[in-house]
Amino acid sequence: MKDFFHTHNFRMLLGTIAVLLAFMLYSASMDGTLTASLFSFVSSPLERVSTLAVNNASAAVEDATVSTEDLQAEIKKLEEENQRLRDQLVDYYEMKQKNEQYESILEIKQNNKDFQMVSAAVISRDPAELFGGFTIDQGRLSGISVNDPVITSDGVVGWVSKVEATTSYVTTILSPETNIGVISKEKRESGVVSSDLKLADQGLVRMSFLTAETKLEEGDIITTTGLAGIYPKDLIVGQVKSLEVSDGGVTRCALIEPYVDVKEVHDVFVITDFYGKGEISESTTDTTAQDNSGKESSENSEESSKGDS
Fold first, then answer.
1. Domain ranges of the chain
2. Tens of pLDDT along 256-270?
3. Which CATH number is associated with domain 116-273?
């Protein structure tokens, strides 16, 4: 141990202690200026690093805020553009629908130049209505009146049974209230089309007053006769689906499948005027007609209805 105090290391330790004591005494005599300078020398880089980090963080937050605002603005812009495109799509479908209606009107008018028609859209249906009746968006102000025939380019739909200023109610061909005088142009056999609840549920109507020797066959096309002045002549009604025997085999009837699915139709035409409207012709069947208002069409009529026979 005594040898340690004589070693070179011990002398270096003493020298280091002496230097430190001298530095401390000098610093005290200088009011800590040197210490502060040394501390400042050491801490300044750290402060610069800290300040830079804080500034960068603030800039990042600011950039994030700006980016969020830009993103929200872009989202709003895209939503507005999407709405504009949806509006254009709606306009396109409306225009397409109108063009299809105009084409249908043109086709019907070319074949029936005497027709005056109003196009209409189905706006409501009563779920409790078993025969497919519906309301359209045209009424008295458009020239529509009770008993006006309602059709599509595919055939007969029904007739106007109630009229308001801007709407009308359509009773369809499936209703028992509807009776239409019809004929098979090919076989030259005529009858009256009507329906009932059971047939309406199947989407069918019945052509009655055929003779037992009828030559009608499945697939024959049935059209209107126009005899009672309610429906124009030659409107397509449907085609024969099958034949049945009625009245104990004395007469027969045909089940007719209408060309128009009245429970699914969306757009129709109301025929407000045509050549022969209201004029009653002599019937070729055993029955004569009574119009939809219940007025008799002949003093000798044996059958009356609210349709056209």
1. 31-111, 116-273
2. 999 999 999 999 999
3. 2.40.10.350
